[in-house]
């Protein structure tokens, strides 16, 4: 259970608060007099269910979705019809009291006596959605006409050496940028130390959520966001830049465009480095010392998508997909590097299409780039329709791990693998330098 503190008060500055938490630890206790209402994580999910009118029993889900059709009339015809919101309006604090409520620990504990990062991904996803519902709160109705789904995990940067399984954790977050139907959410995770009560930062996360109509069929307008003061204007401007950066990154995708001249040289040098000098042949390839062919560095998994893992819209919960992909990615990094890997960054997890209940979900994790003791992993997930025998991609996940020791170099053999390598290199370079300088974290699955 997480305990959640939800605030509607006017905080002096969200950025200042975030900065304080990132530099000095989150020191100010929640101000109960100004509207902080602590609740538990079970209540986060039950609150989400209440907001959309989701069924608690699978047998009622058709009826529950049917009832949501009536909410169509509450949708705004244009964004301008919705009242603007401030960043403070969606600010939420969540406490995961691992220290004070030992009964919570088992769910979060891994074999290395630290916190399962996959569980944190689930909590961030639920929190991100609740933040967006708080931003778009419909004053006239308890039920929201919006179906808010996770479109993208833009970035998660870890900056903490240790995530303790027995110390309280706090999540904070708010909507940081708004488009017409999409919202960027920034969240922070902090943890108290073993020997003091101050919170210090663990990670920063940026998600993009998209609002859809009550039946989750079409996009729907969300309340505009008005930044207050220069700090919030800067946060908002960064949100705008993030959107442009994502468009640029997608335009330059190796699935659409040829690699740059520099990248072509990298690929050709790898090719030359694998030629058999004894035979004058393009075909004879020899693995260089301390290297692994890319085709030998993958793991696959299968999930049957049971109703238990459904979200409030009766599709598979995005956090569950992330946890499963992360754990397969971690296992791949573990078997590749031969020692315990630590996650240092997650970026660009795109939720391309929803996963239906009952789907067969095929996960495929691949080491696609290595550098010193870093391992870049790509996890591809697709649903398989046994009737039509069709495969459809649902998600692509990118995880950066750091191993305890230097790892062998990954070597692509085919052109397709070379593109995977370059894509992995691009994602690796996109993770911040500061993140990569972090010596170690204990965020394991
Ligand atoms: C009960 C316990 C559980 C409680 C947990 C509750 C949490 C629930 C959260 C979830 O679990 S959601 C499940 C995981 N996510 C999904 O299944 C989403 C799957 N993907 C989709 O359904 C569509 O791809 C998506 C709705 C995200 C986008 O559809 P479209 O590409 O048709 O969208 P469209 O072109 O209409 O664009 C709509 C907006 O989305 C934006 N957008 C679309 N794809 C994006 C992307 N990849 N990154 C950033 N923004 C994106 C786009 O820019 C635009 O923003 P603006 O209107 O503000 O300009």
From TrEMBL:
Taxonomic source organism: Mauremys mutica
Source taxonomy: Eukaryota, Metazoa, Chordata, Craniata, Vertebrata
Protein family membership: Belongs to the acyl coenzyme A hydrolase family.
Main subcellular localisation: mitochondrion
A Gene Ontology biological process term: acyl-CoA metabolic process
Alphabetical list of Gene3D superfamilies matching this protein: Hotdog Thioesterase
Compartments it resides in: Mitochondrion
Domain HotDog ACOT-type: 90-215, 295-407
UniProt KW keywords: Hydrolase, Mitochondrion, Repeat, Serine esterase, Transit peptide
Protein name, UniProt field: HotDog ACOT-type domain-containing protein
UniProt-listed InterPro entries: HOTDOG_ACOT (IPR033120), HotDog_dom_sf (IPR029069), Thioestr_dom (IPR006683)
Pfam families given in the database record: 4HBT (PF03061)
């Amino acid at each position: 259970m997480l305990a959640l503190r939800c605030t509607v008060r006017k905080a002096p500055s969200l950025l200042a608060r975030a900065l304080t938490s990132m530099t000095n630890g989150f020191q100010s206790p929640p101000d109960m007099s100004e509207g902080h209402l602590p609740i538990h994580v079970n209540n986060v999910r039950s609150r989400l269910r209440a907001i959309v009118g989701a069924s608690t029993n699978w047998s009622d889900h058709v009826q529950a979705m049917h009832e949501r059709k009536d909410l169509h009339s509450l949708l705004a015809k244009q964004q301008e019809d919705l009242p603007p919101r401030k960043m403070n309006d969606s600010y939420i604090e969540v406490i995961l009291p691992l220290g004070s409520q030992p009964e919570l620990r088992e769910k979060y504990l891994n074999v290395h006596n630290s916190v399962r990062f996959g569980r944190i991904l689930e909590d961030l996803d639920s929190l991100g959605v609740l933040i967006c519902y708080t931003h778009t709160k419909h004053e006239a109705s308890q039920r929201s006409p919006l179906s808010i789904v996770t479109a993208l995990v833009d970035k998660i940067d870890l900056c903490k050496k240790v995530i303790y399984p027995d110390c309280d954790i706090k999540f904070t977050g708010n909507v940081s940028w708004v488009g017409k139907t999409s919202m960027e959410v920034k969240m922070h995770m902090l943890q108290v130390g073993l020997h003091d009560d101050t919170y210090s930062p663990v990670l920063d996360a940026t998600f993009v959520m998209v609002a859809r109509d009550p039946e989750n069929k079409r996009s729907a307008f969300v309340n505009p966001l008005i930044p207050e003061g220069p700090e919030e204007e800067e946060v908002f401007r960064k949100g705008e830049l993030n959107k442009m950066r994502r468009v640029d990154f997608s335009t330059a995708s190796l699935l659409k465009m040829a690699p740059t001249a520099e990248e072509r040289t990298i690929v050709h040098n790898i090719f030359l480095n694998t030629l058999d000098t004894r035979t004058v042949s393009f075909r004879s390839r020899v693995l260089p010392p301390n290297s692994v062919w890319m085709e030998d560095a993958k793991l696959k998994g299968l999930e049957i998508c049971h109703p238990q893992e459904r979200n409030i819209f009766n599709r598979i919960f995005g956090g569950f997909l992330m946890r499963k992909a992360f754990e397969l990615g971690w296992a791949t990094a573990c078997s590749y590097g031969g020692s315990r890997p630590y996650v240092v960054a997650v970026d660009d997890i795109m939720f391309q299409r929803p996963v239906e209940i009952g789907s067969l979900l095929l996960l495929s994790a691949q080491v696609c780039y290595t550098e010193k003791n870093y391992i870049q992993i790509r996890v591809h997930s697709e649903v398989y329709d046994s009737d039509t025998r069709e495969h459809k991609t649902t998600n692509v996940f990118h995880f950066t791990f750091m191993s305890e020791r230097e790892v062998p170099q990954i070597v692509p053999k085919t052109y397709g693998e070379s593109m995977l390598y370059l894509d992995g290199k691009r994602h690796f370079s996109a993770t911040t330098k500061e993140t990569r300088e972090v010596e170690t974290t204990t965020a394991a699955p």
